[in-house]
Amino acid sequence: MQDTAHTEFVLDAALDAEIARATDALRESRHVVALTGAGLSVESGIPPFRGPGGLWTQYGEPPMDGYQRFLADPAAAWREQLNPTAPWAVGLAETLAAAKPNAGHAALAELERRGACAAVITQNIDDLQRQAGSQVLLEIHGNAHWLRCSGCNQRFDRDELEVDPERLPPHCPSCEGIVKGDTVQFGEPIPPDVLDGCFAQVALADCMLVVGTSTTVYPAAGFPLEVLHRGGCAIEINPEETEFSRLATHSLRGPAGAVLTRILDHVAGAEATR
Ligand code: NAD
């Protein structure tokens, strides 16, 4: 697999100057929201779907009817999840379980602690932003560590609800509804509690940090467009050019760990000289 971890990345003077300008814009904003994607977790060893080193770049796109297949035969969908056969899914569960938050996750949590970022909307399912300490966190595509009742939306830690491979699918202890993984599958509606939270944060935002996302999956991809449309700013952090790059107010072409750490340095430096 191509190395996308960018561990040796060195910020050049031009990028560093653009990061300083972007940080000024961020500090002048009232309500900053981060929208993060798979690229944020690449430096934790989790491959993205698209782009260099992406699972789909290597194996091709999987079928887009995952939720329909779950509804048609929940037991079969559970069996496939417990023993995946799709090449892109084999090994992903182990990779997710072993991954640790990286400097980018830590910087976002610290920006929130300092009042420089109000909330994180993440498309990631890996739990790393939570483990790094983000408090106001909206996991718009769910969390691979959790299960969710498709009837009452109650969530369970995977360790909390025993799944018997001989009696699939599992049922909700509260309402008897069918339990599925919390991860939102292709074709599945986003749980309304999370979606409402995202809309509320986007409505307040006058600045959005767009980190490690190809901005191709809606509705998340529409959030920075909405902020721009209202006259706010959008700061993209991605080592590759994306469809969003030409629209972004600042396009910071570098890996999330190094760039977010530098933004945090600038925020901390400005606080120290106040
Ligand atoms: P994506 O795979 O479509 O795009 C990833 C983006 O990250 C690309 O634009 C790539 O250039 C960029 N990138 C690569 N390395 C980076 C780095 N070091 N720093 C910053 N950016 C980097 O991902 P997406 O836009 O999040 O959307 C696709 C879906 O993928 C989401 O729904 C998400 O649930 C799912 N996904 C999640 C994970 C995870 O939880 N870690 C992993 C793979 C896919």
Structural notes for this entry:
This protein is an alpha/beta fold and 274 residues long. It has a domain of 164 residues: Rossmann fold (3-Layer(aba) Sandwich), CATH 3.40.50.1220. It contains 10 helices and 9 strands. The strands form 2 sheets. A 6-stranded parallel sheet has the order 3-2-1-7-8-9, sandwiched between helices. The protein has a 3-stranded antiparallel sheet with strand order 5-4-6, with no helix packed on it. Strand 4 and strand 5 form a beta hairpin. The longest helix is centred in the C-terminal third of the chain and has 17 residues. The radius of gyration is 19 Å and the shape is globular. 38% of the residues are buried. The N terminus is likely disordered. The structure holds nicotinamide-adenine-dinucleotide (NAD). The site of nicotinamide-adenine-dinucleotide has 31 residues, from loops.
